Amino acid sequence: MILESGPSGLILVDGGARIAFANEHAEEMLGFERGELLGLPIDALVPNRFRDNHPEMRRIFDLAPRERPMGVGRDLLAQRKDGTEFSVEIALKPMVVDGQTYVLAVLVDISERKRTEDRQRLLIGELNHRIQNLFAVIQSVALSSLSGERSLREARDVFVDRLQSLGRAYTLMTEQEWRGAPLRQILASETSAFADRVTLDGIDVMVKQNAAQSFALLLHELTTNAVKYGALSAPEGSIAVSWKVERDLRPTAFVLSWQEDGGPRVAPPTRSGYGRKIIEDTMRRIGKHQIEYAPDGLKYRMEAPLDKVGWVIDDPSL
């Protein structure tokens, strides 16, 4: 009764390496009906690819039998009746009953724990990747923000603004469990101070994780330029941002347009700043873009394969 009610699988193996007893928990764990395990060789519970080596492992154990856990420092697998495998912990205890030598094996199914550990390792790996990526981006932003002809105070302000833009994108990705970030929210967070002067029109698109920070910086630079020199530097200025998915193109393309209006007369810049570099570097990786310094307002258009940008969350045309 004690053996049957235990929380672990119990299997008693005789001197001929055959199963002399198995409790109900072990039978259920291994997928056998009541009594089916009795008389089977213990090797039947070893995955096929390891079975040839198991007799030698038993022989080594028999030379110096002692109570001990199996598989210290390595993963152990057992095989069910249907051939599927699962992770286990096994403890062995030699026993002598009526002059006969037996080994009691205690089996614990640790599949769920292994899955949890694997998920944790994956999360740690992803976190390390994100941290290294973030460090690289911050280093690039710092070098570009703090170099050039800016005063230290101005460079510091530019650097902080760009970090805050990255921070907003990371917050959005955290809310989405790092699947990506909604494009509309990226745009809204970058232009929130001018919400009454910026119109956003487009289907709901989720920007991929690895592209979200680039989009955040790109849109931050467009907004910053509009505040300093473009439409948002004048009381009557406005910006229209629209985006769509062109399914007639191959591959399916994501298209975004940024149109400024009502600002001061626009003239092409005399030098290429870091903002322009961010825009060009971003589009070099994922697609193509065009900046037009039209006298009545800057126009920006980007086009990229949808699968490099992200995916459509809700498309009313479908």
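^ that was protein a. below is b, sequence first then the tokens
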Amino acid sequence: MAAPQRSWRQFGVLFGLGALGVLSLLPITIPQLRQLTLSGTPLPPLPVLVAASMIQPLLLLALAVATGVRLAPSLHLRSHVAAWAAGEPAGEPRFRAQVRIAVGLGILTALVVLALDHFMLPTLGEAGQGLRILQKRTAWTVITSVLYGGLTEEFLMRWGLATFFAWAIGKIVRTSGSPTTATVWVTIALTALLFGAGHLPAVHGQGLPLTAPLIARTVVLNAIAGVAFGWLYFRRSLESAMLAHATVHLTWTGLSLLV
């Protein structure tokens, strides 16, 4: 298979998977947009608003997927799905060996984050009470967290952003091939902080004031998870990070039902 054809096939397969996560937002987004149209403010028709709400995340997804397809091979960063789409030898045995550590690290990360959150929420006052209400999940929000978090966010943050940072740092320090240990950890930390900060708009969008304690709680807890996902991406594969990310959400949901 010619190189351009392989790249386009990789892009199409990976973008399609990430788009599933974006589309999973629709059952949550549509009622919110419908409320806006009923508020009396002059707005475009609901279908136009829904389509417009999908444009930005899909464009960001396309950019991230294209970045990973272009740069990840030169850094020896692996996606089993991308390799399959390119017609490379099957990587199922290698991925099966990664499942245990991905699931285990996902469960451990969820436990650490939940434990820290247990002690941080009481310090947030009314915002903490609001977060407790928001953390109650419906069946669909669990599905969305797995699809959007486990797939789309990993394409955006690890496959796209972390790959770009590792490539850019390599250019600055004039290294080639696999990133050095220092480059890996700088990239993991930087991406994790941005991953944590990226959750602030969602918190603010739920009507909670972004006080300093709430900002710290949101960034730190999500950054801890981001470090785990980043380590798995650089040391195992993109799919390992995805599996761990999904495991964190499922573990969080399961423990929330029990506690």
